[in-house]
Amino acid sequence: MSRASLANEAALVLLEVENLAVEFDTYGGIVKAVRGVNFTVDHGKTLAIVGESGCGKSVTVQSMMGLIPMPPGHITSGSARLRGTEVLGRNSIDGKEIRGAEIGMIFQDPMTSLNPTMMIGDQIAEPLQVHKGYGYRQAFDEAVRLLEMSKIPEASKRARQYPFEFSGGMLQRAMIAMAISCKPSILIADEPTTALDVTIQAQILDLMQDLQHETGMAIILITHDLGVVARMADDVAVMYAGKIVEHGSVDDVFYRSAHPYTVGLKEAMPTNDPTRQHELHPIEGSPPDLFAPPPGCGYCARCPFAMQICDTRESPDFFLKEQHFSRCWLHHEDSPSKPDDLYFKGREA
After folding, report:
1. Residue whose C-alpha is closest to residue 234's, from 246, 247, 215
2. Alpha-carbon span 186 to 205, nearest angstrom
3. Are 265 and 253 in contact (CB under 8 A)?
4. Is the separation of the CB atoms in 113 and 156 below 8 Å?
5. Residue pair 181/159 in contact by the 8 Å Cβ criterion
6. Within its chain, how far is the Cα of 51 from the centroid?
7. Which of 291-322 are b and which e, b meaning 16 or more Cβ less than 10 Å from the residue's Cβ?
């Protein structure tokens, strides 16, 4: 790759996470929640981090924002660089606070994330007063404008109401308004549609995309819903047992799946396409115990294609395309098994 190409690629990268590892000290021992995670997020793009509950998705992003209580949490290795500047263990970059100003976050349950004793408008105005130095009136007027951007009707009236007066969908819109109030470079959405019905889910996802186009922010979307991923993501990182086991574009991950876990997630996903209807196949078994992670592949005990080496040695990243890799021994040139439902380098999807 030429120097110009490398420079252009570096200019596109907004956030770069390398070898991030996070542990928690508990009465039962040390939980190795995140075990060497690597990914990048480009300007204006959406990265979806997918995986079942407990795989380390939320811990990964919370560690970047300094939201993990220490102790019991510990970042044991790795780095997270925003525009080339390290953010782990820091509160600000060039005078701008990382939380709120540089990175905004939508939490999973807005009802427990909002203060029930404060008006919605005051809660949205508060980050503007803290990070931007706005006066109260200016901040409140901006809060009303943000509620209008979030497509909440009668925004001026709603800004003077309390969380209990909002529906679940409106609360999530208010959370989005708060998260984007300081125009962050990255918006982290942690399961933003979990408690919402399907119609409101679609509205929230459309709103996030519209705001992304207007502001140019990048989005990190944390979810276990592959339907949301297909709708929103540019790139996908599939996470299992504290590690990213497959990474690629949304088309690569959906149509050229290269890890048995990704295939298992797809097989367990219902579809309304009559040409693709099939019996749902749940992934049998349970995730590994992260008090004592296995020395090999974390998915080995549940994998229908597991080989002897999978139990004892961790697979390297096998690149099928420049930005598409799978952490699975099946892609080794000496592997005796090449399952038909996995994509291999050189094979057409």
Report:
1. 247
2. 16
3. no
4. no
5. no
6. 10
7. eebbebbbbbbbbebbbebbeeebbeebebee
Q: Measure Cα distances from 187 to 37, 180, 212, 313 in Å.
A: 19, 7, 9, 36
Q: Which of 29, 46, 37 is nearest to 229 (CA)?
A: 46
Stated pTM of the model: 0.86
Q: Hey, what are 326's tokens? A: 């799978």
The answer to whether the bond into 316 is cis (omega within 30° of 0) is no
Residue 62 tokens, joined? 């919370």
Closest CA to 301 of 339, 264, 343, 258: 264
73-82 β-sheet, strand order: 29-42, 13-26, 73-82, 85-86
> 3-state secondary structure string, 46-100?
EEEEECCCCCCHHHHHHHHCCCCCCCCEEEEEEEEEECCEECCCCCEECCEECEC
Residue 193 CA to its chain's centroid (Å): 13
8-55 per-position pLDDT tens digit: 444 588 899 999 999 999 888 999 999 999 999 999 899 999 988 888
- Could you tell me if 129 and 191 are in contact, meaning their C-beta atoms sit under 8 angstroms apart? no
pLDDT along the chain (349 residues), means of 10: 44 86 91 92 92 88 85 89 86 72 81 86 88 88 88 89 87 85 87 76 83 88 86 92 93 91 84 64 85 90 90 91 90 88 73
Place of tokens 């130095």: 133
Q: What are phi and psi of 42, to 5 degrees?
A: -90, 160
Rounded (10°) CA dihedral 81, 179, 114, 200: -120
The angle that helices 120-131 and 136-149 make with each other, rounded to 10 degrees, is 120
C-alpha–C-alpha distance, residues 141 and 124, integer Å: 10
Residue indicated by tokens 């057409």: 348
What pLDDT, in 10s, does the model give residues 114-153? 888 999 999 989 888 888 888 989 999 989 998 988 888 8
Nearest to 65 by CA among 82, 77, 52: 82
Which residues lie closer than 8 Å to 163 by C-beta, 6 or more apart? Answer: 110, 111, 114, 115, 116, 120, 171, 174
